[in-house]
TrEMBL record, chains A, B:
Entry-linked Gene3D superfamilies: 3.40.50.2300, lambda repressor-like DNA-binding domains
Protein name (Swiss-Prot/TrEMBL): LacI family DNA-binding transcriptional regulator
PANTHER family linked: HTH-TYPE TRANSCRIPTIONAL REGULATOR GALS (PTHR30146:SF109), LACI-RELATED TRANSCRIPTIONAL REPRESSOR (PTHR30146)
Record flagged with keyword DNA-binding: yes
DNA sequence: TTGAAAGCGCTACCAA
DNA sequence: TTGGTAGCGCTTTCAA
């Protein structure tokens, strides 16, 4: 199974040149005679030689690799986030590797060790169990940017939308549509979710409606939570006429719970989701949602990160991108084209 | 941003011991006096030293890391597959890192380079654009196992279910339920999908039904394909009474298309999905599906991989695990508990 | 139980 | 345009 473990020495010997020259060829140095270059390349080809990056990276003290740290890689928003990060990275010659922590402290530490142990040059964090203090400690010593799902820190850069305003906008829209009894299915396990709740409360207050705690439920971003918590809401004396869900998957659960109870969407109850992921389209009716500029969030995150990696001095920035509301059948009666 | 770049030398100096001793402490060698050990550990703590793994791995010619190569990390089956791989890896002291190729040849080559460049010790491939020949070339030289979504090769190990039999079982079940006009929404972009189609054909043949090409549609595993291709099926003169979908997401699209056309599921048309992912539950009715033992597939895959990494000689195995059919509302009228 | 030192594969400096 | 070589940080053998 072990490959032949060829080294730059083997190539040099075979090509009758020095290792320095081989190294130059590998790294596309311009100061190699064309004839020499092609000879070396030919030997590399024949031998099937691949340079050992451990040696290279050790010598250069740089890996051109970054790590994406996140509880789950299968989050619906992850695809576009990753594409944004990866495209930006590619542009600068960096590779992105990823690993899910599944919210395990141990796993998280193990991955952060990859940063400390010089296996990657920088870290992008999209949600973690790390405390703001821990994030700050890391941020002070290493290159680190938080993206989308973040915690308040002094020493890390952050790229995200304005979650509070997003919550505010969602609720304001529902209020404008005539709703007075608006529920929310949120989560306590996420900074962003809590901010969206603040937005909810502000919008309610501003409209002169009274805040009713029983209209706010907390779950964990899953379809099942959407299903169950909606059922809970339906048990209330004074039922909501609109429900704001923390993401689209929850919103699909919400819509399905309503339908199972014979409640018409959007006529009797309107539903708003979040993220504009493909799940928002997997329901009948489709889900009105707040869209995050996921690709751009990712792209800008890498740009901030490479800034930090290249700079000596510290330079922490917060970048806020615009969200927007996408209207679909779960809040408005739209003609369905078939 | 740069951390202080402490080395084992710094620790040695500060602790008044040799680097060899520090190394022994780091690696939990038993031949260090307890007093020495604690002194060294204290210095490590004070300084905040983390060993540079590039140096270590270069020296050891081993990284204790493997790479998971797959077109998309957000595939619904990926979560359990990854957990299985990761748990097995953890058990052996290995880390798993992942990267999506998004079916880009270039990205794929870049990631495979990580293997060739000694950045990881082994590779797990869950779907790729690599030809059997390319896979064989890699398999001959490096440690490589295919999992779940695979191609026929001589020189790689494979862990998967028997996809042909799975297709056969799904269709046989529908035939036993009385269906005679059975459609399939498959895909041409996947070996497993093609095998399931073979199973479909065999079951049809065995039951003495005639194979009707117009009942077989090809898409790309997406919700939209489920939606559109089902619409196509409904345009047929002689409509199907059952539809077998290549995965659960497609099946949800299928069910929704049927509902939008006023067709009752399962009374008028029955639907079967594949994979038993969470999407199968996100539909009304829930989707009858073929479950793969995803976690175990992942677990066994790593076990095969570590075998190869530890062995000198070649040792290619095919492991086939059992699938099973899960009955839900899309094929049977089940009392829905509320 | 500890230390000295060679060397993993590579890059990049200096000299030619 | 090329070669010689020091040294990146670490482990591990050998000797003490």
């Amino acid at each position: 199974m072990e490959s032949k473990n060829l080294t730059i020495q083997d190539v040099a010997k075979r090509a009758n040149v020095s290792v320095a020259t081989v190294s130059r060829v590998i790294n596309n140095s311009s100061l190699v005679r064309e004839a020499t270059r092609s000879k070396v390349l030919e030997v590399i080809e024949t031998l099937g030689y691949s340079p050992n990056f451990l040696g290279r990276d050790l010598r250069r003290d740089q890996t051109m690799r970054i790590l994406l740290l996140t509880p789950s890689l299968i989050w619906p928003i992850m695809l576009d986030l990753f594409r944004g990060i990866d495209d930006a990275a590619q542009r600068h010659g960096y590779s992105v590797i990823a690993a899910p922590t599944t919210n395990s402290k141990k796993k998280e530490q193990e991955l952060i060790a990859m940063l400390k142990n010089r296996f990657v040059d920088g870290l992008i964090v999209i949600g973690s169990t790390l405390s703001p203090q821990e994030l700050d400690d890391l941020g002070k010593q290493y290159s680190l940017v938080q993206c989308s799902e973040w915690k308040e820190t002094k020493y890390t850069s952050i790229v995200s939308i304005d979650d509070k305003k997003a919550g505010y906008d969602a609720i304001s829209y529902l209020i404008k549509s005539g709703h007075k009894r608006i529920a929310m299915i949120g989560s306590k396990n996420s900074g962003s979710a809590l901010l969206r709740l603040q937005g909810y409360q502000e919008a309610i207050a501003k409209a002169g409606l009274k805040f009713d705690e029983s209209l706010v439920k907390f779950g964990d971003f899953t379809y099942e939570d959407g299903l169950c918590l909606t059922k809970d809401l339906l048990k209330l004396e004074d039922k909501p006429t609109a429900i704001f869900c923390i993401n689209d998957v929850v919103a699909v659960g919400c819509v399905n719970a309503l339908k199972k109870n014979g409640i018409r969407v959007p006529d009797e109850v309107a539903v708003v989701g979040f993220d504009d992921t493909k799940e928002a389209l997997m329901s009948i009716p489709e889900i009105t949602t707040i869209a995050q500029p996921k690709y751009e969030l990712g792209y800008r995150t890498f740009e901030l990160l490479i800034n930090q990696m290249n700079q000596e001095g510290s330079n922490y920035q917060n970048i806020t991108l615009e969200h927007n509301l996408i209207l679909r059948g779960s809040t408005v009666n739209i003609d369905i084209k078939e």
